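Private note to self, pasted from the team thread so I don't lose it. C-alpha cells:
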C-alpha cells in the first residue's frame, strides 16, 4: 500500500438524523437565545437572587422527576426488568440523589465517597453498582459484604478480588466492564477489550475460580453520545459476548449494563446544530437497546436484567445558574464582554457546552454579540465566546440554563467561595447547599508552630479566633 493510500481514511456510511421542524424554522441560535426568562422553576429570578444571592444554582425538582419518569417509562416499555442506576458523580448533591432514589433509582458509584454518600441516604448496598478504574481493598470488601454489584475494570483488580474470594467462604458475584470500539475517540481507558478477547480471557479466569461468579457484563460507551445507534451496537456486542460466555463457560449472564452517556439538550461547542436537534430522545435510546435485547432474549438461559447508568440526561435540564452582570467591557477591536459573577469554577461544563444564556429583563429586539466571561483572574474563564443578548448593564441578571450535570461535582473552590444551591419544589424553595464561608477552605489548614508569631497569633489557625 502506498503512503497516500494508507493516509486515506476508510469510507464510513454517513448517519442521517431528522431535525425537528422548529429547528429549521429559525436561524440557529437567534430568537431562542434572547427571549427573556424572568422566571426559573416558576419563581421570579429577581426575588430568588435577592433572597439567596448571586450567583445562585436553582434546581427544579419537578423537572428532575419528569426526566426520571420519562426515561424509566421508555426503558420499561421495551424491557420490563430495567434498573436505572443513577450516575452519582454527575450530581452528588444529596437532595438530588434523594429525589432520584425516591423515584426508584439505584446508585451507580465510582468511589468510596460516592458509595458512602448513597449508604448515608439509605440506599442499601444491594442496590448500588460500583464502577470505576480503582477501588481500594477496603472499599471492595465493604461493597461485597453489603451485596453491591461490583464491575471489575482491570486484571490487577481481578487478581485482588480473586484473593478476596479465596479467603472467604461464600461466593462473590462480579460484573465485568468491557470496552468495545464504537466511537471516535474511543473510550478505551476502561475495562477489558472485547475485540482482542481480553474480556473473554478475564471471563475464563473468573469461571475457573470456585468462589467467583460472573454475574454480568457492563459497558459505558462514553459521555454525551447523541447517536442512539451507538447503544444498539454496544448492546449487540454485550449480547454476543454474553451468549458466547454462557455457551462456552456454562455461566449464566444475569445482567447486562449499558452504562450512561445519553445526551441532554445542551449544545456542544463547535457543533453546527443545537443539542436538541441532534440528541436522541429517551425513547430512541430505549428502543436502540431494548429491541436487540428482546430479539436475543430467548437465547439466554434466563432473560438478563438490564441496567442503565444515566447521568446528564437525568439532571442537566433540572438546574439553572443565575448570574449577575458585574461589568460590561469594551476591548478595542473586539466584541463587548459581559463580566458575570459565575465563572468556570462553578460552571466547568462551559469548556465543552455552549450553555444557553438568557436575559431576565425584556429589553426588546435589539441584540448584541457578547463574550460572556467569569470573575476569575484567568484568561480561560469564559462562559461563552459569543452570545446574542440585549444591551447589558452592570446589575442585570442572566439565566444560564441546563447546568445540572457535572457542574457541582466538578466545581472548584478557586478565588471565590461556592454560592448557595437551592431546590424549588411544590412546597417552596429550600437551600440544599449553603454558601461556603472562608472556613470551608481554611479550617482544615494548620500553621506549624514555627510560623506562629506576633502577626499570625491572631489567626483562626493559631486558635486566635
Ligand atoms: C461508568 C459510568 N456510568 C455512567 C456515567 C454517566 O455518564 P453520563 O452523565 O454521560 O450519562 C459515567 C460518566 O462518565 C460513567 O463513567
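Design output:
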Amino acid at each position: 500500500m502506498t503512503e497516500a493510500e494508507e493516509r486515506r481514511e476508510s469510507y464510513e456510511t454517513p448517519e442521517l438524523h431528522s431535525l425537528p421542524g422548529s429547528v429549521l424554522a429559525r436561524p440557529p441560535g437567534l430568537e431562542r437565545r434572547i427571549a427573556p426568562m424572568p422566571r426559573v422553576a416558576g419563581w421570579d429570578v429577581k426575588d430568588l437572587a435577592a433572597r439567596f444571592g448571586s450567583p445562585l444554582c436553582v434546581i427544579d425538582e419537578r423537572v428532575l422527576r419528569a426526566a426520571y419518569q420519562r426515561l424509566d417509562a421508555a426503558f420499561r416499555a421495551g424491557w420490563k426488568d430495567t434498573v436505572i442506576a443513577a450516575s452519582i458523580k454527575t450530581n452528588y448533591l444529596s437532595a438530588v440523589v434523594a429525589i432520584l432514589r425516591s423515584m426508584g433509582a439505584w446508585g451507580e458509584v465510582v468511589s468510596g465517597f460516592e458509595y458512602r454518600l448513597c449508604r448515608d441516604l439509605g440506599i442499601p448496598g444491594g442496590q448500588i453498582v460500583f464502577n470505576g478504574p480503582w477501588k481500594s481493598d477496603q472499599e471492595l470488601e465493604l461493597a461485597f459484604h453489603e451485596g453491591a454489584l461490583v464491575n471489575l475494570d482491570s486484571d490487577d483488580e481481578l487478581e485482588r478480588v480473586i484473593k478476596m474470594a479465596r479467603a472467604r467462604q461464600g461466593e462473590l458475584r462480579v460484573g465485568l466492564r468491557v470496552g468495545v470500539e464504537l466511537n471516535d475517540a474511543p473510550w478505551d481507558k476502561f475495562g477489558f477489550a472485547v475485540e482482542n478477547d481480553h474480556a473473554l480471557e478475564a471471563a475464563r479466569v473468573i469461571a475457573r475460580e470456585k468462589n467467583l461468579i460472573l454475574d454480568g457484563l457492563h459497558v459505558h460507551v462514553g459521555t454525551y453520545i447523541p447517536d442512539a445507534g451507538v447503544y444498539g451496537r454496544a448492546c449487540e456486542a454485550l449480547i454476543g459476548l454474553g451468549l458466547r460466555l454462557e455457551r462456552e463457560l456454562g455461566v449464566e449472564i444475569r445482567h447486562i449494563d449499558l452504562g450512561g452517556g445519553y445526551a441532554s439538550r445542551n449544545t456542544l461547542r463547535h457543533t453546527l446544530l443545537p443539542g436538541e436537534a441532534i440528541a436522541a430522545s429517551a425513547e430512541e435510546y430505549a428502543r436502540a437497546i431494548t429491541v436487540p435485547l428482546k430479539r436475543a432474549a430467548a437465547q439466554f438461559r434466563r432473560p438478563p436484567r438490564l441496567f442503565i447508568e444515566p447521568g446528564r440526561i437525568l439532571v442537566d435540564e433540572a438546574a439553572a445558574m443565575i448570574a449577575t452582570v458585574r461589568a460590561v467591557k469594551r476591548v478595542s477591536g473586539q466584541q463587548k464582554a459581559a463580566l458575570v459573577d459565575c465563572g468556570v469554577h462553578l460552571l466547568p461544563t462551559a469548556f465543552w457546552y455552549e450553555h444557553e444564556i438568557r436575559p431576565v429583563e425584556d429589553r426588546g429586539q435589539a441584540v448584541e454579540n457578547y463574550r460572556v466571561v467569569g470573575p476569575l483572574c484567568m484568561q480561560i474563564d469564559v462562559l461563552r465566546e459569543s452570545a446574542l443578548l440585549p444591551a447589558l448593564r452592570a446589575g442585570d441578571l442572566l439565566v444560564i440554563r441546563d447546568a445540572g450535570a457535572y457542574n457541582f461535582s466538578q466545581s472548584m473552590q478557586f478565588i471565590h467561595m461556592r454560592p448557595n444551591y437551592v431546590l424549588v419544589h411544590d412546597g417552596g424553595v429550600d437551600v440544599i447547599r449553603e454558601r461556603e464561608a472562608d472556613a470551608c477552605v481554611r479550617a482544615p489548614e494548620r500553621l506549624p508552630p514555627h510560623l506562629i508569631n506576633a502577626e499570625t497569633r491572631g489567626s483562626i489557625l493559631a486558635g486566635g479566633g
